[in-house]
Amino acid sequence: MRLVVLLAAVSALALLAIPPAPGGGGAQLPTVTVIGDSVSTSLGEDETAKTILAEGVDLRLELAPCRRVGQASCPYKDTRPPNVIDLVKTLGSTLGPTVIVAVGYNDFVDAYAQNIEDALAALADAGVKHVLWPTLRAVHHDYVTMNDMIEAAAARHPELTVVDWNVYSRSHPDWFQEDGLHLTGPGAIAMATLFHQALEDLHIPVDTTTGPPLRITTSKLPAARVGRAYAATLTASGGTAPYRWARGAIFPRWLQLAANGRLTGTPLARSVGVRVEVVVADAANTVVGRRLSLPIRR
Question: At what angle do helices 141-156 and 109-125 cross, to 10 degrees?
Fold first, then answer.
């Protein structure tokens, strides 16, 4: 199964903003439903993020601002969206076997732990087998406490998988708007990437390709030297040529990446453990990515 670890910067959106290709060979895609609040609405608005998250699954998005888990949702444009529990009871088995619950930023800390329990019970009654629950980006102390509640619930419920969005996003202020919560374009792509990787870890997406899957064959980059011109070429295999390359969200400022996979630039200072994330798309609009290490020496 293809590994999808995709983080594209804004400059890559035009390149990779493509609709998901239809599944080949009549493969039955597993249904995955994402229930979210305003923080995750970008998953439905950004076509690149949606493409990443939908790879290998029948993706269904239930995203609404002001959604809460158990209490009445807060009003938004004169309406209140159904909370998670009510929505689950309404949708029932149409949710499919896997649900991602990305809700909590509007919730009350003193009720959140019990709300998680009640939501898990409702999801079980609906036939859901896997529940993925992202942690909250802890810009407020209450969110730290609520993240502990998510972890505690996972310790009690084997069907619950914690997806640590808080840690994953910690060093990336460029993924967020001024409030530090709502997403920019790269942030939506990052969230979709993390969610899809969590699905991959549970072996939920299916491989719909009929030939060798697209993959990045470059496994490591040659070392760069401070003050000296650097050049390297990325390679890929499988899929349908030609390939088009783009930068990921984690990418050194001094480094450039051409569409043909050529990396160039000149590092100005030594840095230990520089990470480079790259994305490649093939002619069939299959998209994959990889994180590489780039050592820098004097």
Answer: 30
Residue whose structure tokens are 């990443």: 52
In this predicted structure, what is the pLDDT of residue 10? 33
Residue range(s) occupied by CATH 3.40.50.1110 in the chain: 28-201
Q: What is the pLDDT of residues 49-93, one digit of tens each?
A: 999 999 999 999 999 999 999 999 999 988 999 999 999 999 999
Give CA–CA dist 124/118, Å, rounded: 10
Phi then psi dihedrals of residue 42, to 5 deg: -65, -20
The answer to whether residues 221 and 292 touch, using CB atoms and an 8 Å cutoff, is yes
pTM (predicted TM-score): 0.67
Q: Where in the chain is the domain with CATH 2.60.40.10?
A: 215-297
Q: Quick one: CATH architecture of 28-201?
A: 3-Layer(aba) Sandwich (3.40)
Q: What is the CA radius of gyration of the chain?
A: 20
Distances in whole angstroms, Cα of residue 288 to Cα of each of 5, 63, 66, 197: 7, 25, 33, 11
* Count of Cβ atoms closer than 10 Å to residue 235 Cβ: 13
Contact in structure between 294 and 276 (CB atoms under 8 Å): yes
Residues near 108 by Cβ (< 8 Å), separated by ≥ 6? 71
CATH domain 215-297 topology? Immunoglobulin-like (2.60.40)
